[in-house]
Amino acid sequence: MRRFNYLLAALGTSLLIFDAAPAANAQMMGGYQEQNPPSQSELQDETNMQNAGQTIYKNLQSGKTSCQKLTSDDYEKLGEYFMGLSAGNTENHVYWDNNIQQMMGDQGDTAVHEVWGERDSGCQTNAAIPANTPSFISGMMNYRPTSTNGSDTMMYGYNNSSWNGTDTALTTLLVLAVAAALFAWLRPHSKSVANPLDTMKNRYASGEITKEQYEKLKKDLQ
Fold first, then answer.
1. Nearest to 129 by CA among 145, 112, 144, 146
2. Domain region containing 220
3. Residues 204 and 151 placed together within one structural domain of the fold
4. Which whole-number Å values give the CA distances from 104 to 107, 108, 133, 146, in the listed order?
């Protein structure tokens, strides 16, 4: 019973950690869990911008255009595309944009996308990140492993998903909690040793031994 209680407690802790993961992840990404869900028009506009940026990037890679020919508007679209890759899905991307706009205004949001486009297109890899850029955005722009095969997802190190360090830490805690539960369940527990006098009393009460035998055994034990 004690081992079962240990198991329930550890599993309860694991569930609490698992339930806290989305909130912790959202907090890391700028607290956007408090925003309203994006509308269909917002999602469609974001999708159009990302698609436009993807087309520009493909043309840049294929040589159909060059860095010298790109305009500020092109870099903004490229930034939308690259941010979309890191966000993992369009809804997350809208949340990130709204977060930037709340902190920096529309001009700041545009500047962030332009710089992201300049840096990750390879045209201006050292372009200065605008002041007051949310830390989670600037951190992503600074983390840019070099791709050896031209793959869009490889250049980010996110494997085209929203997985991040917070998820890793929470998963590690979850695994440790489950391991602790299994250890508590499998660990051998010493059985309590019954009191000899109590055993004699029970045998006497059940009629297994006579009163004389009980008294003799009681005296011997004492």
1. 112
2. 193-222
3. no
4. 7, 5, 7, 29
pLDDT for 175: 74
| Tokens, residue 133 | 């850029």
133 in the same domain as 208 = no
The 8-class DSSP code of residue 69 comes to G
**Total tally of structural domains belonging to the chain:** 2
Helix ranges restricted to H, 88-120: 90-120
pLDDT confidence of residue 146: 39
pLDDT at 207: 79
Classify residue 104: in a domain, yes or no.
yes
**What angle do the packed helices 90-120 and 72-87 form, to 10 degrees?**
130
What was the pLDDT predicted at 77?
A: 96
What residues in the chain have per-residue pLDDT under 50? 17-18, 20-33, 145-166
The secondary structure of 139-179, three-state, reads: HHHHCCCCCCCCCCCCCCCCCCCCCCHHHHHHHHHHHHHHH
The reported pLDDT for the residue numbered 35 is: 65
pTM, two decimals, is 0.55
Residues 117 and 217 in one domain: no
- 139/204 same-domain check: no
Say if residue 49 is in the same domain as residue 155: yes
